[in-house]
Amino acid sequence: MNEFIEFRKVTKQYTIGEVPVTALDGIDFTLTKGEFVVILGASGAGKSTILNILGGMDTATSGQIIVGGQDITRWNDKQLTQYRAEQVGFVFQFYNLIPNLTALENVEFAAEVCRNHLDPREIMDRVGLKERINHFPSQLSGGEQQRVAIARAVAKNPLLLLCDEPTGALDDRTGKAVLKLLEELNKQLNTCIVLVTHNAAIAPMADTIIKVKSGKIERITRNDRKLSVEGIEW
Ligand SMILES: Nc1ncnc2c1ncn2[C@@H]1O[C@H](COP(=O)(O)OP(=O)(O)OP(=O)(O)O)[C@@H](O)[C@H]1O
């Protein structure tokens, strides 16, 4: 069974003061193991809300989220904490590294809490930072810090790697190198990656593109001929 995550009629409403805001308005999709998914949409479309609900950082107002056959909307806080800690890796636009830990210690710190974690040194090697393991975040470039953040997320050996605008703070060349790394990790480790971006140029590298507009799915496209990052121009 390859379909391991499912969103069924998911809605999310926020209330600011007396005013309700519908962030998600009936979202349905399925993710398969090892898939590289790009979620596209304009600012405010609901992309980050989908990612946050998928990662157990926020809860749906209604609908179901099925992970490995279980409906996580029924889980208690302890189950959600365990899901976030062990099954989901997060990569954000800003790297959020702990400044007084070295690059390797940042990765080890995250891996320690996970039962099935990978070897932090080996992951640092895979992300191309073997020579930088003892550097503090302030001694690394933006691209290198993002590599550490990716290593930290991947070292948990997660079911899902969620990336919210991971290249948003990087120049084009460094951004492409980070995407290349995500592409390689997706192939090597068969981790399902869900990447949120407003940059439509990234879409050709995905297996599946989910286009979101005003809290609804506008279109889901399966990409039969996906391109490697080198073949993408923007
Ligand atoms: N915590 C919150 N409280 C109230 N409203 C929120 C909250 N989070 C998101 N929203 C609203 O929900 C809608 C969807 O927001 P979301 O952040 O998911 O969009 P997005 O597509 O990720 O946008 P961006 O690309 O600008 O990050 C927006 O109208 C936003 O203002």
UniProtKB/TrEMBL annotation:
Where do the ABC transporter domain residues begin and end? Answer: 5-234
Q: Which CDD domains match?
A: ABC_MJ0796_LolCDE_FtsE
Query: Which superkingdom does the taxonomy of this entry point to?
Result: Bacteria
**GO: which molecular function terms?**
ATP binding; ATP hydrolysis activity; transmembrane transporter activity
Q: Which GO terms describe its cellular component?
A: membrane protein complex
Name the UniProt key words of this record, in alphabetical order. Answer: ATP-binding, Nucleotide-binding, Transport
Entry's InterPro entries?
AAA+_ATPase, ABC_transporter-like_ATP-bd, ABC_transporter-like_CS, MacB-like_ATP-bd, P-loop_NTPase
Q: Identify its protein family.
A: Belongs to the ABC transporter superfamily.
| PANTHER family according to UniProt | ABC TRANSPORTER ATP-BINDING PROTEIN MG467-RELATED, LIPOPROTEIN-RELEASING SYSTEM ATP-BINDING PROTEIN LOLD
- In its UniProt entry, what is this protein called? Putative ABC transport system ATP-binding protein
Q: Which organism is it from?
A: Paenibacillus phyllosphaerae
